[in-house]
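Before relying on records like the one below, remember that each one covers exactly one chain. Contacts with other chains, cofactors or solvent are not represented anywhere in the record.
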Amino acid sequence: MLRFTEQRLREITEKATGRRIIVFGDLMVDEYLWGEVTRISPEAPVPIVNISQEQVRFGGAANVAYNLLGLTAVPVLVGVIGKDRMGSIFREMLAEKQLPSDGIVETSDRPTTVKTRIIGNDQHIARVDKERTDPLSPELQQELFQRVLNIIDEVDAIIIQDYNKGVVQPNLVARIIDLANRRGKFVTVDPKFENFLSFKNVTVFKPNIKETEEALAVRIHDEAELIRAGKRLLKELNSQAVLITRGSKGMALFESDGQVTLVGTRARKVADVSGAGDTVIATLTYALCGSASVKEAVYLSNFAAGLVCEEVGVVPVEQDKLVRSVLRNQNDYDD
């Protein structure tokens, strides 16, 4: 197993601090409504929730940016929000975190994507989604590409975060990846099913095990099948590396030089896996910007995912906490 010295960790984090990283993808707002249930509605057999607390948080690709912020990088979001109330709230959240809005495109053609969770008596009762998932118009796609073009020379990497909400389109993605490669920028991808094999020639392609099975129409039951799937993706996508996340079984890294590395999970006690994928792609890209090797970046992202899985709810990883966790716990694990 790879071991980090404190000097090496500090070297990576110091180089990564302040690096500007584009996060391109589906921007969302996560809205939480907390309250108490004391009776059932007389109109239908549903609980009446008396709301006592409301909260909005970054969701979707914006949660990746929030993780980068905790790691002391500077995320630059590129995506679409609606000209609506939640779009205004999203901009206020950006301003509150002192995040740039250069890459945000507003449109009246589609709403800001909002996931509203209703929680009564500490139980998740319902989720209400407001969204459109059809592809962006060619005009909006061109506007997003122009936003990337305007800032590409000011950043070190691009994260493409797809949730199948219509923003991440194959032709647009191909142009962005080509631009980034020509300018010598890292490109990392967290895919979803619909565009899965569209992300060619990237630095690291990071699907989870379920997405890999669905996209390749296979079932992965053992290590041999996992390795075949990873090598197949590496070849079909012509990426420098493929990282398959496997939940409680850890991760599998496939590199273009033929190396295969299986990494065990780093969560000591799993409380909630929400947001772990966002944490992995953020930490991975952040570490690459700090001159970490792909393998070093994967190990750090694995520790980061372990940290957030020990917390309830979607929480970002923090740089100092990550460093302390690696130094304190890395000798407790064998891969």
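The chain has one domain: 6-28+59-113+132-330.
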